[in-house]
Amino acid sequence: MRAVVQRVTSASVSVDGEIVGAIEPDGQGLLVLVGVTHDDSADDAAKLARKVWGLRILADERSASDVGAPVLVVSQFTLYADTAKGRRPSWGAAAPGPVSEPLVAEFVTALRGLGAAVETGVFGADMRVSLVNDGPVTLLLET
């Protein structure tokens, strides 16, 4: 699994002009874009959730778990784009929906199980993500 984690002061995701998930933290929160590849597992989802929840990237080197920061999770298969040849990306490394959707849901469930307040996008939908990146701080994580 791959995740792009951004420290934000606000973030939202909308589908067809309607906001389906949003965070407006009292300070900072996290926007997490999550991609899944073919051999990922529920263990990978849980491991990634623990890593994201414990990352010390908020003010004063604190983690989301330290301050109860909210998290917005958005599935993003494009994190597994292969751009090695030509100008058109290949998506072969991205797991298909029937594989990736349950693992993204498992990631969200694991975060909630750790105590996170989690909002989400809509899997497979054409989404618009808005955010105010704080810092900016953006990290790429892989399991």
Overview of the structural elements:
The protein is an alpha/beta fold. Strands 1, 2, 3, 4, 5 and 6 form a six-stranded mixed sheet that branches. Helix 3 links the parallel strand 4 and strand 5. The protein starts with a strand and ends with a strand.
Short précis:
The protein is α/β, with parallel strands linked by helices and 143 residues long. It has helices at 42-54, 64-67, 97-113; strands spanning 2-15, 18-23, 29-35, 71-75, 118-120, 127-142.
SS field, number of helical segments: 3
| Total number of strands | 6
Distance between the termini: 5 Å
Helix-strand string? EEEHHEHEE
Low-confidence stretches: none
Helix/strand/pairing category = alpha/beta
Could you describe the largest sheet, including whether it forms a barrel? 6 strands, mixed
What's the gyration radius in Å?
A: 15 Å
Strand content: 35-45%
Name the average pLDDT. 97
